[in-house]
Amino acid sequence: MIRPILIHPDPRLKKVVDPVGDLSDDLRRVADDMLETMYDAPGIGLAAPQIGLMARLIVLDCIKESGEAPRPIVMFNPEVIAASDEQSIYDEGCLSIPDQYAEVERPAEVDVRWMDRDGNLQEESFAGLWATCVQHEIDHLNGKLFIDYLSPIKRQMITRKMQKLKRDRARD
Length: 172
Ligand code: NI
Prior knowledge:
7 strands
């Protein structure tokens, strides 16, 4: 089921959310919905707070080449356990901030630990777009958006555009 995605500014996108305890079929269903919602958007990552669910859960798939097999990943309680000194810059966007992009600098490589949908602990190193995406999504679980890395002026500009977008959508 495709879920509506919250648009910034929204207080739910500014909250630090609690870890997931025991996995349930309900949570697995939400994860499936999030993947469906992400692919439909289309996007390469989505965090639970973006659909209004306050749980440490993210989904991602950064395979963008057509013809390559998709690689959907569901992460409960994801944690960056190591980050490279080397940084990389990507032009980031966010499904909660449609059509706005800005360069953000982050560690180029990160090791991430998480619980998969079967409740098993996983650990993997991510580089390139995957590294950027997983850090962006984990930020969502801490109430942080990519525009928080920008200057206050740029952030305000984007926030005003989003307020207008929300007003326009509410009118339609
Ligand atoms: Ni985002």
